[in-house]
Amino acid sequence: MYAGFIIAFILCFFTSLLNEENAGSLLSGYNTMSDERKKNVDFKGIVKIHKIVFYSISAYLVVISLINLFVDNLKFMFIAMTLGLSWGFIPLFFLGSNHDKNVYKPWELWFQRFMFAFLFLGGLIVSYFIFITPLNELTSNNL
């Protein structure tokens, strides 16, 4: 019941650690870039986008958890959290590319598209399986 609050707290905590000074070491992939590619990345913009996206996901999880306190529907909670966590990261693909002016190889672009499709379709598929699963199987202690 309190999983949404816990996940939101963890996301907020790690997001609060991110700033412009330590972004190079905390954001994945930057420390392995060459110096010429690092020059094409606007870290102020990327840090701002990361904070907006992660705080938005956290706020969404808190709202869903508050709703769940008053409306006792476990399937709603599972589906809403699944969609929020999988679809919440999708804006990073679109908004982050505005602050990265590097030219990427075709396989890198296809990998980004694959991850976008994986997050979108994966959230839908997992939500569908949660929806068709009987409630007593979702709440059993045999998991």
TrEMBL record:
Keywords: Membrane, Transmembrane, Transmembrane helix. The chain crosses the membrane at residues 52-71, 76-94, 114-135. This is DUF3784 domain-containing protein. It comes from Paenimyroides baculatum.
